[in-house]
Amino acid sequence: MGGPLRAGDILKHATEYQLDTYLRPLIRGERACCFSLTETDAGSDVRSMRTVAVPDGAGYRLTGHKVFSSAGPFADFAIVVARMAGTGEQEGEKPLFSAFLVDLDSPGCRVEDGATPMSGEHIESDIVLDDCHVPAANLLGEEGMGMRIALGRVTTNRLLHCPTVLGATRRAIALTLERTRTRKVAGGQPLLMMQAIQHKVADMATEFYAARSMTYAALAALDEGREAHAEAFMCKLFVAESAFRILDEAVQIHGKEGLTRGTEIEFLFRKIRMFRILTGTSEIQRNGIAKLLAFNH
C-alpha cells in the first residue's frame, strides 16, 4: 500500500460518528482508505477539478473521475474532494470544494485499475463516481472547507513521507558500501580504496545526514503541535532531491548491476525517482517556500 494512509491531519475535522465508523478502524488497521484528489487535468492545479457534488436533501450526489488514488486496490473507503455544484461557474467566481468519506462499494462508485508507476507497484486506482449518493453524515468538516482540509493533509503528508524515503536511501548507501568493499578492481584492491569512490560515498553519507537531520527537526516541531508548513515544503524538496542524487551515485558505483532490472539498487532508484513528483513536484515545493517567505516577511 506504499505505507499506511497518513490520516493524522484529517482527524481534527471528523465527527464522532466518522471517527468511530471510518478513522479509528483505519488507525487500528481494520479498514483501508485511499485519498482521491487528483484528476487527469487537475494535478498541481487541483482547483481545476471537475468532480462535482450536488446536494440532494439527504446528502450529496458525486460525479467525476479521480486518478492516482494510492492504495485504491485495497481500500474500503476514500476521502474524496469535489467541487460544489453551482460554484466557480461564472467568470471570476471562486469554486467551493468539500471533502467526503465515500464507501467504495456504494452504488454509482467503481474502482478501476490505475496507471502503473515506474516503480512497478500496483498500488494506484481510478475512482469513478456516477451519481454516487453520499450521506450527509459523511461530509468531512463543513461545506466549502474541502480544499483547506485536503491541502492541510497534503502539506503534512509531504513531511511524513520523508522518513520512508530516507529509509530507502539508507538502504541504498548500505548496499553501495558493501559493493565498494567487496568489488575488486585492477590490482585486486577493493573499489573503496579508489579516492574517486571515497569522495562519492562521503558526499552520499553527508547529504543523507543533512536530509535526515532537517526531517527530524521538522517532525519534532509537528509532534509539539507547532505549525510546520514551511518546514514540510523544505524537507520534501531537500529529501527528494538529495535522495535522487544519492541513488544516482549508487547506480553509478554499482555499474552494470545498477542498470540490471530486478536488482535491489535498480528498484530503489526507480522508486526514489518518483518522489520528486509525488505529493507535489520539487517546483511546487519551491513555490510554496517562496510564498511562505513572502507572506511571513
Structure description:
With 297 residues, the chain is an alpha+beta fold. It has 7 helices and 8 strands. Strands 1, 2, 3, 4, 5, 6, 7 and 8 form an 8-stranded mixed β-sheet that branches. Helix 3 packs antiparallel against helix 4 and helix 4 runs antiparallel to helix 6. The radius of gyration is 22 Å and the shape is elongated.
What distance lies between the first and last C-alpha atoms, to the nearest angstrom? 40 Å
Low-pLDDT stretches are: none
Shape: elongated
Q: Which value, in Å, is the CA radius of gyration?
A: 22 Å
Q: Average pLDDT, to the nearest integer?
A: 90
Computed structural class: alpha+beta
The ordered H/E elements are HEEEEEEEEHHHHHH
Number of strands: 8
Proportion of helical residues? 40-55%
Outline the biggest β-sheet: 8 strands, mixed
Strand content: 15-25%
Work out the helix count.
7
Topology:
Layout: H1 16-27, E1 33-36, E2 52-55, E3 59-70, E4 77-84, E5 97-103, E6 109-113, E7 124-135, E8 139-140, H2 146-182, H3 195-223, H4 229-254, H5 256-259, H6 264-274, H7 282-296
Helix pairs in contact: 2-3, 2-4, 2-6, 3-4, 4-6, 4-7
Describe, in short, the structure shown:
This protein has 297 residues and is α+β, with helices and mostly antiparallel strands.
Descriptors:
single chain, 297 residues, 7 helices, 45% helix, 8-stranded mixed β-sheet
